[in-house]
Amino acid sequence: MRFFIRLSYLGTKYHGWQYQPNAMSVQEKLETALSTVLQIKTNIIGAGRTDTGVHAKNYIAHFDMDNSKFANDIPLLIYKLNSLLPKDIAIHDIYKVADDAHARFDAKKRSYKYFISTAKDPFIVETSWLRLGKLDIDKMNKAGQILCEYSDFTSFAKLHADAKTNICDVSKAKWTQENNHITFEISADRFLRNMVRAIVGTMIEVGTNKISLDEFINIIEIKNRNNAGVSAAAEGLFLVKIEY
Fold it and tell me: Which residues are the active-site residues?
């Protein structure tokens, strides 16, 4: 039987979701806990990678389980997993799906939020990017509208990554500000490695008038990562939703 598992994690201590041979990952922690509870080696397939230090409020993965005890008592399984997992990883739900359901390949849309703080706040240092100075949010939103008109995001893709295509369907790219907190929301059918952080870093240059909207368009169209801005800090990025 196949199950989807919904979890959240604070990515500060981890080298992303995906297993790394010489570094700690969320996938490794979860597989270890699940294998311990089920008393059998259990592999978990995630909805996709997240970069080192990036967080997830709603992450989806799948695993196969033939243990009737836990299949019939999901709350007990969730309880035991949360008891074994560290404080920065939490299981919220586990539910049965079709045997051929796939957490990664069946996902139709993914949404991220990026958080910026414009004032020093010791309580959010791990979950937002401290960036002092004024940003032109209206101009950055115009850049967001421009972004949604394109599909090739090579300029925001990690160099030498293994993606077969850099085509993505971005349906939302919006900035909002409330007092000292700025939030960027972006949704697409798929994302490239480091794509959101590269977009945020480039849009910051738009918001500080280092580049014009015409130059932003040129950066997209030239399809060269070296022309885009520096990637924004990992701690401000959250995967917030995956739709199937």
Answer: 51
